[in-house]
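Form 7-S
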Amino acid sequence: MEIEEKIFEKAKPLWNQLIPYGFQKVGDGYRYEAPLHQGDFQVHIEIHPNGKVTGKVTDTNFGDEYVLFRVEGTQGEYAHSVLEEYTALLLDIRNHCFIREEFLSIQANRLALWIQQTFQESVDYPWSDPEVEKTGVFREKTTKKWYAIIMELDGKRFGRNDVVNVMNVKLDPEEILTLVNRPGYHVCYHMNKKQWISIFLDDTLSDEEIEKRLQESRALILAKHSPRKKSIHKGNQ
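Output:
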């Protein structure tokens, strides 16, 4: 597998982010070019209409493609430094211009994209245990506290016969009481059932309704853990 395939595996372009990053529209695709390794080389990145990413590195002086850094097991310091710089550039492009399709359900991936575009906060995987590695969390960027958790679970836990993505969000306890028996909601799985609720990400609920719950959850986390609130509380002691 090529470097580009590994880095952009399961990643989907955010087309509206490409030109602001520095890409140019070329035909039906996009192209990015930049100097590499103090100008010794030129990078050429192509994003094709199907979202596939290809790239090459050319020698600035001769225009020939430089491929030594792609040879597996290459020990040369020069080739290794080119590989490091090229990889860092690809990762930067992925982080700024792509969203990974991390989850089983289409709705889960849509909501992950909405979160990234709305709050500039991406999914994080805090566990390495294979049984929970498909559990992703979203953190409010200033407090680093979770406000949403998406899990891939056996639907038998909920009386279903499928595998389902479930999102946990934090809501006001009184609101949870009004929602918990409605279609699309469930008593919170694996967290405080008075303060958190589970939502099935199977299009039972609209994206707009779940986005509202996400905003509420994030606001509650921010209000509880914001540095400003802590400093006011400390000053009143």
